[in-house]
Amino acid sequence: MQNLSARVTENTPKEIKVGANECRLVREGERMVARAVLADVIVAIQIPSAGFAAMLRFSPPPEACVSSLRLGALWEFADQALALIFESIRSMDIPAGAMLVSAIGGADVDDLTHGHGSELAAAVEKSLSQQGIVLNGSDLGGTQTRSVWLDSSSGRLIVRSASVPPAASIDSASASGLAFAQPGETSKWQPPVLRDGTA
Fold first, then answer.
1. What is the end-to-end Cα distance of the chain in Å, rounded?
2. Is pLDDT of 123 > 70?
3. Domain annotation covers residue 10
4. What is the pTM for the complete model shown?
């Protein structure tokens, strides 16, 4: 019985949670998860040739009335964070064509997101375009909350939608405050974004 227990533990991927305004990198045997994604925008990056994957989560403010100055700072944060991650990737001589990039989230529910979801999605898409990145997959907009998994062993990116959005709980951050996990090696990758309509 102990041997069976040990095998199950060894084969179970380590789950790394991606919180508000964080960036995480994973190695083989680990998977990233972002739950309760409503107005937040997730950018998932897979690089099979380099053997790692990254997930960035951008979160807008929860309140309805936000100054244009604060919104501008949040959009600048997203721009700087994306520039930072892609600059790091390019420093490893990885061409843009070797990356699989997907964007998920940016939902809007009037009493919860106040239109910030669609604004953040547009800001992230603009930043990606300025970085010369063409999305391989996109699941942006709508009114449902999502959960996102990226499994480093299989390379699968899975998006699940829930029928009822959660209450928003969001903090802001600066690009210099991004949290990183160490990348490792990955041997198996599959590019598709799988869409699952269940919670």
1. 33
2. yes
3. no
4. 0.75
